[in-house]
Amino acid sequence: MLVGWSLHTGYRIRTKQGPDVKAFLPFFIAVCNPPYTRPFHLPRHTADADADDDASPWVPVVRFAVPALLWGFAVTQLSLLAETPTGVICPAGWCIERFTPLAQLATVFLDAIIISQVSGLRRADQDRSGRAWHLLGSVILTSAAILSFLAVWSWLDPVNSAANVFLTPLEIRDVVLDGTFAAFVLVVGTYLLGDFHANLISLVTTGTTVSVLVLSTSLDSTSNVIWSDYRGVATGSVVFLGFGALLHLRRVSLPFGASPHREHTIALGRYFIYALGAFLLVLFHASFFRTRENLVFSPTQVMAAGRVESDTWFADATKSTSLESAAKEYRRRYGLPPPPNFDKWYELATSVNSPVIDAFDQINSDLLPFWAFTPALLRRKTTHLLEHPGLSMGGLLIQDGRTSVSPHVHGTHRWMVDVVEDMVKPFSQWLPDMQLAFNLDDECRASVPAADMTHFINMAYVARSRLQSKQSLVSFSQTPSPPWDKGFLNADDSIWGRRSNSFHVSSKSPIFSQLVAPTCPADAPANQVRWWNRKARCKECSSPHMENGFVRNWTLAADLCHQPDLAHLHGFLTSPSAMAASRSLFPVFSQGRAHSFADILYPSPWSFLDKSQYEEDKDVPWEDKLNSVYWRGASSDGFAVHGSWQMFLRARFVHLTSAIRGTVIRHDMLRLFRRRQSSPAADTAVSSMTLDRGSQSGDASNEQIMVNVSFVGSFSRCDERDCAAEHVTFYGSSAEPPAALDFHENWQHRHLVDLDGAGFSGRFLPFVRSASLPYRAALFRTWWEERIHPWKHYVPLDLRLDDFLPALNYFGGVGTRDAQEIAEAGQQWAQKALRKEDMQVYMFRLLLEWGRIIDDRREEVGFSLET
């Protein structure tokens, strides 16, 4: 019974798009249960009674309903101001999501009817009052029966069920806890309805709720922005007026006349409501007067810290100036001797003037857990991947220094493995025999539970310690035992139909609970908290990696373990297009991966082939670039089904920028733009906004920044309903999709934004190579992550995009000089460290390390200067 009631409540919260309308409950109760019935009045003076007898019986109803209606509007508005939205989109056109607020209003009305009926039964004679409990139990049991049916239906078809109420264990825990609390409230409320009017109970409940909400936001810096809005002033006034007006309706609170204990209770309730009003008033004034001095939206502090960290890394990454010093530094960093042929790698690195000689921590961390497996088992795991090409794996074989590509590769993806072969050929003669499985999909594939990963790492350190103690070292073994299995190379087309029991398809469905949360520690928020309200931002989730409203720790910003709210804010997590992941550790080489996954990162064929090419002769100097933010792309984050696109990163970004077109930005209004719900049309992709420079620099002059952001082409990764909704929302009901522009159009603009697609974005490296300023919001990490630094080479953005407008306001206005410095630093470093030669240096070292791990004598294998 309790579970059914909580399912009903949880489902309404989880799917809501509009404001919470439960604050209108007192108004509906006033309409459904008018306070003019004679037995419900307190004893009054005879003259007062006669006066009321001459008045219309609906006068008390109006007198109560009007303040209750104002109360509902005020509390709802105050709740919206205290709640920071995530930018989840309510689609344009005739979509079912747009009727969610109306449906919520209808449910609140039904709640008011139920409460009114229960109140009437409780106020009746003692023989009939028991019917209130019977009615309450019947309603809850009916709700439980309906929702149990929906749960069974969604369990049978969890992907295609439009009313999916299938719950995870964490969600069931929340339902049980909420159900227990709800049952307590229902029982106590039903009991109190026998002595007090329903409006008094609903008033105290909503007043307490909104007070707790405001108190929770008052401790956060965002409250300054909330309360500085003129709407906050009006809302606060209406709330206080509503309190005062409702307090004067005291006489409707006693149904059976006055009694001492009831009078004392009413007096206590009055003082409680007065205290709530006084608390809100004091909080409002305190927040309002401190707003002006605390409103600082400048990244200078985190930018300075980021540059110090970057300079420290540079100094540490290039300390070695000889083979001897490089080998010694390797031992110091990783506690091991370098792999065989380290001298050949060093020769390649120095011949191409690689600026990074020592810092390859990414390779070390990626390969560390594989030391826990025997070389023979790793070879079998690799062969398993290549024996199942339906998993979208491409094989590269190295034998006797020569390379070849597995014959079982999809034609549309063959180019990727061919590019990898071209990348490896210059140094393949120095590699041992091996087979490599490359992930051809955008999504990462290895999701290993945290407990298993911890066990693997502990075993890995034990295995590596035995190598560390060896005095004499040997080179790669010539013949592994057992040898690589090559039987699959001659298999016929039936090999495409093979299915692997180790990989499970999760396409077009949420993966956070199934594939992400298990990779986090048991006490992490991802395993302790289920973030139900997708339209409200979780402040605690972003606080570990944010400082002063900007990203302070870029590595931690991608860690999903402390950010359960991101389950709703990225296409990869809500509805990946192609997802076949394993919970076992497989040696899968991927171009990019989310933080919690265990894929081995390697340089992307997309970047090596210059699919998104930067041509310096088509770039323009910073001074000649338009002061504009530019983005063009497709909605490729995931497969849009059942409205999942409303939460995609790219969709939220385009929708956010559409809300600031033609708007004046001031520091105390930045958060208000995210509340606008305008729908961009194809012909309004370019517009301007004014950046307020005088507030920081004392300069009264204003500078215009253009907003040039739009999707291009038709929406294709979606079902029919969602494709139509996306088209209407972003292009209008009759507009044709805008055509894609030449990629070199990017170089005409100062501010370029890079966003994740289905996987990592292939545009970021060209953006860094250009003379423009790159902004980056990304969950996926790549091979070059450790050598490209936030605030030194680009501007990092949180995936919630709260910091985009403040960053744009700064770098497009008073921080123009800082913007140019970051753009120039990124361009200069990219010319040294992000070349094709640098990709080959990274790949050579990666495969040397991997070759040692799969060697049967790996606890003796290493490079020595004496050999």
TrEMBL record:
One Pfam family from the record: Glyco_transf_90
- GO-annotated molecular function: transferase activity
Which regions span the lipid bilayer?
A: 133-155, 175-193, 200-218, 230-250, 271-289
Q: What UniProt keywords are attached to this protein's entry?
A: Membrane, Transferase, Transmembrane, Transmembrane helix
Tell me which SMART domains the record gives: CAP10
Q: Where in this chain does the record put each Glycosyl transferase CAP10 domain?
A: 542-850
* Family assignment from sequence similarity: Belongs to the glycosyltransferase 90 family.
Q: What is this protein called?
A: Glycosyl transferase CAP10 domain-containing protein
